[in-house]
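Task card 7
Instruction: Convert sequence to structure tokens.
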Amino acid sequence: MKKIYFSLFTTFCFVFTFSQTFSDHKSLVTQEIQTYQKMIEFNVNPNTLNYDLQYQRLEVYLDPAILQISGSVTSHFLAKENMQYIYFDLTNLLTVSEVIYHGSNLNFEQLVTKELKIEFSSELPSNTLDSLTVKYSGVPDNSVRTSFYVGTHSGSPVLSTLSEPYGAQNWFPTKQSMNDKIEAFDFKISTPEQYSVAANGRLMSETPLPNNKKLTFWRTQYPTAAYLIALSIGTFTKSSDVIGSTSFPYLNYLYPDTATYAAVQDNLEWTKQAMAIFETHFGTYPFSNEKYGHMEFAVNGAAMEHQTMSSMNSFGKGTIAHELAHQWFGDKITCGAWNDIWLSEGFATFGEQLIFEKNLMTHEEFLAHLSNQLNIITSLPDGSIYVSDADLGNISTVFSGRLSYLKGGFALRMMKWILGDEVFYQMLKDYTANPAFAYQYAKTEDFKNQILLSTGKDFTEFFNDWIYGEGYPSYSIKWNQTSGNSNVEFLVSQTQSNSSANFFEMPLPIRINGTNGETAQLVLENSTNNQAFSKAVNFQVASVEFNKEIQIIEKNSTVILDPTLSTISNSKETFVLYPNPVKDVLKLKGISQISGFEIYSVTGQIIKKGKYTPGVSLDVSAFQPGSYIIKINGKSVKFTKE
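Output:
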């Protein structure tokens, strides 16, 4: 979900400032906590695992002046095993009147667990494609805007839905578990004739009905998670245009007063630039056979990335960018559990970073933006990006602005720093194109494996530190360059904000400034604490800066000139290892103090790490035959295991 980036503005003031951006992030989190508090109840309903939901057709009457829904939902499903019963997620606040199956009525029961249990007259065989229709009516839950909202805008009745995470069940029978997308969905919505309906997919028709009614028919043929099925009803000013690399439809449904604001129209036109940037870096827009667009809704301070048509309460560029980025990350690829919400919100927040950097900000403004994000991320010493099972019931943890949004987005920025821009963005394109995830669900481990598949680099250590782990590092970087010496010596030590973290391995960005205005960019591959480095430069160094471009998460780090450092680094020991090739036990010569070590495969995967004590041999008997690299005190030596 979603942005409320500009909720502290007057509704249509789009002056862009950093302080407002981050105040609105807090507003975003507050609104989402209120919206979701009643709905974060489960990740998987085990009663719905025995079928695959292929298609749903929603045929209902809705009047935005009346809080009520009535009609039917027809569901086509594929039995995955022999079935005597089928369950749908549906609130018991709505009343089911009939379940029709091949012209006959089936027995059913509405459960207090917000499930509709339907019994077949005879067992349905596995691998059978079948269908049934549920007729229902009632008053959906309108409290705290959980999913189905009826209200007014400028005195005119409006109706809208916002179902993330488990609100779809509040207005239609469906399947909400994050493992089965609805392959296709039809909306056939009857309303009083003066209202228009906006929804997912392609507008098929608008047909007059007797008694001053109208039937609006939308169809989406892209797989869609239940919480992304959405509509907005009201009196709209509609605009039609084209957008994207293949000039697909671009539709906007705005309340009439909103449509009069030049700033809104300018930002809707600017969306074409954002689309081009995202297509360049993420891959082609995922739903180009249907459309992209925005449908305004009256849920104050909110926005939501409903597939093919984002629901918007305001139209700031940051909000537009966030919801548009979700079309790739959240809609095309949906997190496979709410534990993995960062795969949606962190990625959309990174999408904002991309837009700010490439389009909306000067370099100095962008660094200020990143600095503000970093201050929020490090404002507390704990918390992980990945949401543990124990925290799933805590909505403020699941939709944490500090962790799921900002730290998740910054973790992607750190991956980009490690991999380089070209490799990183190609990896994202590989991820969005991977048929295992495209228009499906993905979990954190799936994305980690995609990085390995695309780049050959194992990010297990990174994910353990930054995605599953808690806290952040603070660095002490000492440096010195003795007179007449071309090398700069460094000694890097690290402390962690949270006691659960042992060490954050990270390449460190260093900028060296010369006495005559020279500069050099260096990278210190920091893999152990109190690690020494020696780097050659061809000028006299005046100062050293760390993380100047804010590439990594850190706080309260210091960079200190230490005139004694030459003695420390110049005495850095070299070592030899034997026997090489080795069968069972590896011995090292030339190490006189306890030192950290890592052993890597030749592909860069870490195999073993720990502390080496002089005189103690390393047991490598369990290693597979092949070549390996051992790294101690910044020096790497290759050896072969027989």
